């Protein structure tokens, strides 16, 4: 083997070696020399003795935002951005020009609108103040009118009492006046204009227990017959459940209730009559109305109770307006 030697053209310190003249070729054939063993390649050494520049390593890629933020937070934060970008691309492809910001005209319009809003607010505030003032004025007027009305009603009541006192004094002053007073009292009892107190009878009527048919219930015509029978036996004043019965009273059926003087009655029905309690109680059963009620009690189970009372008080009828009047011929 050939002895080890330096590689031609390179010195051991890495500097280029001096050029050498190649040896002449030998005529005698020699076996091919084995190439000398090459030492492991060393990086080039710079003049100052350090190794040459190494190739920079590949930079690590940054992690995706989804890995940093979390998939759910990433989708929440960027869900609309992709939609806006998609719509923007579509508009650009279609040639739609983006809207421009409002110019001078738009600013002027906004300014005018702001002035109008401010004016409306000021006007509304003024109207509210005026409305409050008007309301206070109206309330004061209403209260004043109410006070005036109360004063006039009190004066009217005082004048009425004064007229009644003068009437009593004038009627009691003469015999003729006392006769007129007696007649007025009697007409007031008959017409229901004054309350009445005295003895009489009380009749209580009601439906049959568990009534399911009309013939087991008290009808308006049943009360009409009873009241007419009481007039026939000498009743001076009659009331039904506190409603005074006069010649203007209507007893009728209104819906599912019976009305007296247009006031609905509730069962049981109490009919009070002032007069001779002994005669009225005995004579009532002999009238057509009395016999009808006896039949209703016996056949259908309706309640029909008659009791005598030593003293009863019947209220006056509701006042009514006199529409017209004429003097009877016998008094002319």
User: What is the helical fraction, as a range of percent?
Assistant: 40-55%
List segments where confidence is low: pLDDT < 50 over at least 5 consecutive residues. Answer: 1-32, 43-53
C-alpha-based Rg, rounded: 63 Å
**Looking at CATH, which topology of the domain at 196-314 would you report?**
Alpha-Beta Plaits
* Count of extended strands: 8
Largest sheet: 5 strands, antiparallel
Mean pLDDT comes to: 78
What is the CATH architecture descriptor of the domain at 196-314? 2-Layer Sandwich
Structural class by helix and strand composition: alpha+beta
CATH hierarchy class name of the domain at 196-314 = Alpha Beta
Please count the helical segments: 7
Main-sheet strand order equals 3-2-7-1-8
Secondary-structure element series:
HHHHEHEEEEEEHHE
Describe the global form.
elongated
Question: What is the CATH homologous superfamily assignment of the domain at 196-314?
Answer: Protein of unknown function DUF881
Describe the structure.
The structure is a single chain. A hairpin with a 2-residue loop joins β5 (257-260) and β6. α3 (104-173) packs across α4 and α5 (220-232) crosses α7 (288-300). 45% of the residues lie in helices and 14% in strands. The protein has 7 helices and 8 strands; from the N terminus they run ααααβαββββββααβ. A 5-stranded antiparallel sheet has the order 3-2-7-1-8. The longest helix is centred in the middle third of the chain and has 70 residues, at 104-173. The chain is α+β, with helices and mostly antiparallel strands. The chain has helices at residues 65-69, 71-94, 104-173, 175-191, 220-232, 277-284, 288-300, and strands at 196-206, 237-240, 243-245, 251-254, 257-260, 263-264, 269-274, 303-314.
